[in-house]
Each structure stands twice: as C-alpha cells, then as structure tokens.
Amino acid sequence: MPDSPNDMPVELSERISASDAALAARVACGDAAALTPLYQRHRGSVYRFSLLWSGSAAIAADVTQDVFVHLLGHADAYDAGRGPLLPWLLGIARNFVHRRAGVDARYVPDDVDVEMAEAAEPTLDEAIDWQRALDRLRAAIAALPPHYRDVLVLVELAERSYAEAAAICGCELNTVRSRLFRARALVAQALRASSDTRSIARG
Amino acid sequence: MSNADLDRRFAALKDAVAGELPPPATDRAIAAAVSRAARAPRAAARGDRWLAWPLALAATIAVLSFVVRSLPPEAIVSEPALKASGDEFLAVVPFADIESAGDALVVPARLPRTTLAQLGLPINPARAADAIDAELLVRRDGSVLAVRFVY
C-alpha cells in the first residue's frame, strides 16, 4: 500500500481530471473552455495527419479547424469507453479531408489493380537531394488511392496502431494490413519509376 | 526499393513534419469559436446539465482503466494475499475531499485487474488481463473518491 493514502491517489486524481475524456465530457456539457487544452494537445497530430494526407497546408489548416469546431458541437458523440480521443479526432479529420478531396467514402478499390501515376516530375539535377527525395515521396503518397493513403499515413506516418487505423477507417484489421502492404508497394513502385525516368533523362 | 529503404524515407518524412503546427489563423479561429460558444452556450447543453455527471463518470472510469494499464511490472506480486485485502473502500483522493464530498454515490464498475497494483494490492500475473468487479464511490461531479473490489 502507499505510505500515505494521499501519495499516488492525488496524482491519479489529477491525471483523471486533466484527461482527454474528462475534458471532452466537460465540452459535451457546455463548458466550451475545456476545448482549449484539447486543441493545444491534439492540434499538431490532426494538422500533420491532414497535411500528409492532402499535401496541402491550406487544406490541413481548414481541416484542423473543422475538426475542433466539430468537437465543440459534438463532443457528446465521443465515447471514452471505446478508446482514446485522438484516434476519434483523426477519424473526423479523415472524413473532412476526404470531403475536401471529393472522395466517395463508399468507394473501396481493394481488389482493383491500380495503375500508379508517376510520382513526380523528374529532376535533371544529378545530385541526390534529400529534400527532393522527400518531395517525391510526398507526391507518391498524394497519388495513392484514398483508402490506401488512409492506412499508410495513419500507420507509417501518424504512428497509429493497426487496430486504431482499422477503427478510424471503419474496416477490419486484415483489411488494414492488406491496404498497407499494397500502399507500400505502390509508393515503392512510384519512387522506382521516378528514379528510372531521372536516369533516362540524364542519358 | 527495399522495405528498409522505404522505412528510412517514411522516417525522414515523419521527421520533416514533426514540428508542423496549424497556422496562427487557425489558433485564432478556434479561440473565437470557443469564445462564441462560451458566451452563448447551446440550449441543449443548458437543458442537459443532468447528463454532466454520468458523462464525467463514464469518462473517469474509462481513463482510470487506461491509466492503470500502463503500470510498471514491479507492482505485480502473487495473489494469495488478495483475499486479505478486505472489502473496505480504498481512498484515491485525500480523506478531506471524501469528507467534504456530500452525497457521493456507489457505482458498480468493471476495471482491469491491474487497478489492484495501482492501489498497492497484489495481483496474479496470470490473471492480469482479466477484469475485476468493483464499486466506485463517486462524487456528483464524476470524480472517483474511493474504490472497493468485489472478489
């Protein structure tokens, strides 16, 4: 037992009071100010997910704003018993970013042999520029079909677990695995194509 | 391109955006939305104040479950002494808070067995993943004051 009943329990109590779930419950009950710490805590993750998904800082900023304004009005839809807040916010961000990209959420091209567009215009610069390599990677991700992009950004870049990605995307765990496998293959293929084209251009 | 090479590129991209935050305009927009909502709270919210404590309680139980799952393994010992723990409530806040809590309620809950370790009680590692029945002493604002395990 703790030396004093006040030692660990106070810390536990404070952690609970400052938790996402408690703050979200306060927002749901009309305490709008409780949104501010939630925004400070999660704005980066939501923004970066939207940025990596869309490739556009402007879209990412709009989506981030939409997500937290949505939370302000719909915090009662969050069920803390079903999981942490951040994956729930990323699920909302996914919906908003799909909407802005004009993606039909019902379209799931898992069993379609997708032809990848070339990731990016080749560069004639012979030096291997890491920044350009990253740009090509961004372009390859942006060229992915939306449902592949979802899992790739969530798992590889936003560090979400497979289970969280499945919950966010509303699909089975095995679907996440297969989409991720396919997404990685498509990105690798696009980067290879980009590299080959550069080699040809250099002659 | 190998998987390792692809992973290296993903890691580099992740690092490149690691410090990215929304622009100040977004911060201001959120602050304005909060301010507007605070000035004119939703009618539904005002009418649904009775929902506050059940929501807070549900949130508290969920978070309590989450917190105790991350306990260090050194807190785990054998369970034979478990029965000796008694069936009295264990305080999780200062006693003064409990005394001033007023009309607290007793609410049944199922918690991860690792909750026992958080409170310094022994648990059986073989059953650490199981849930355990408990009763929570809860204040009207949803904060947990004490817990009792039902064996």
Task: Summarize the entry for a quick read.
The complex is a heterodimer of chains A (203) and B (151). Chain A has 203 residues and is mainly alpha-helical.
Q: Could you please describe the fold and organization of this structure?
A:
The complex is a heterodimer of chains A (203) and B (151). Chain A is mainly alpha-helical. Chain A has two domains: 1-102, RNA polymerase sigma factor, region 2, helix turn helix motif (Rna Polymerase Sigma Factor, Chain: A); 109-203, Arc Repressor Mutant, subunit A (Orthogonal Bundle). Helices cover 68% and strands 0% of the residues of chain A. Chain A is built from nine helices and no strands. Chain A has helices spanning 7-17, 20-28, 35-54, 57-74, 85-101, 130-142, 146-157, 162-169, 173-202. In chain A, helix 3 (35-54) packs antiparallel against helix 4 and helix 3 packs across helix 5. Mean pLDDT of chain A is 80; it is low at 1-8 and 104-118. Chain B is of the alpha+beta class and 151 residues long. Chain B has two domains: 1-40, no CATH class; 49-149, no CATH class. Helices cover 42% and strands 16% of the residues of chain B. Chain B has helices at residues 3-17, 24-39, 43-47, 52-69, 95-99, 115-118; strands spanning 90-91, 105-112, 131-138, 144-149. In chain B, strands 1-4-3-2 form a four-stranded antiparallel beta sheet. The radius of gyration of chain B is 22 Å and the shape is flat. Chains A and B meet through helix 1, helix 2, helix 3, helix 4 and helix 6 of A and helix 1, helix 2, helix 4 and strand 1 of B.
Mean pLDDT of chain A: 80
The chain pair with the largest interface is: A-B, 60 and 58 residues
Shape of chain A: elongated
- Report on the biggest sheet of chain A: none
Radius of gyration of chain A: 21 Å
Q: What gap, in angstroms, lies between the N and C termini of chain A?
A: 74 Å
Radius of gyration of chain B (Å):
22 Å
Q: Overall 3D geometry of chain B?
A: flat
The CATH architecture name of the largest domain in chain A reads Orthogonal Bundle
Fraction of residues in β-strands of chain B: 15-25%
Number of helices of chain B: 6
- Mean pLDDT figure of chain B: 72
What is the class of the largest domain in chain A in the CATH system?
A: Mainly Alpha
**Proportion of residues in extended strands of chain A:** under 5%
